[in-house]
Amino acid sequence: VQTVNQNNLQIHSFSTPQAEMSAEGTLGTLRGPLAFERPKRFRFQGGTLVTGPEVDLGSNDELFWIWMRRSPQRAVFYCRHDRFAVSPLRQVLPIGPDGLVEALGIEPLDPALPHQGPFPSKNGALEIRTLRETPAGPMTKIALIDPNRGVLAAQYVFDSQGKVVASSVVEEFRRDPLTGLTIARKLQLEAPPVGFRMKLDLGTVQINRLPGNPQALWTLPRYEDYPWVDLSEPQSAPGPGISSSGWNPIQNR
Fold this sequence. Notes:
By secondary structure, the protein is mainly β. It is built from three helices and 15 strands. Helix content is about 5%, strand content about 45%.
């Protein structure tokens, strides 16, 4: 835990001018700038050379949002962090901004949690098991640590029945030349219960360096003809394209 945290606690922010994000059943590979700043600030603006901007996924300390140009309901949907678990967005984004950052393996390991191990694993990694209480019930997280780099190489979350509910596997790391810190460069995320799979390539990611005016990155954006729609309140009436049984903002792609 101390070895992992020695690296992770020094990563306060990161950015890359050209991340690549692709998920099954969507628009293919989206490319664009991506940035993060602790504790909850995140922004990815992706598109393609042919169609232009397609998605804006962001988060600040209070809320997070998603804009998709091809959404059947033209809106910038946003939600408070503490309402995410019960909002319609949960059916579209099985991994929210917090989960995405955790999947990158840069969150410190809380020494106060009930960890078990480390145990040797079959592939030579070191395994740490952690019991976690979540809104969905007790979960077990298994983290695999690269013994050569001392960083998180893979993470698996199991429910009380022993089924995998989420996983992230790092395929390639990058050591930042200026800070000497290590971060995931390529990784694959999965949420088997909802058939979600995503690949993320951060490219030439830079640690503790943000571009331009960082505060502008964390501001809820405005897009012409796309009004803000707050999904935080359960009594809010869902509009076209959103229902309690499911919402797919790219169903008309």
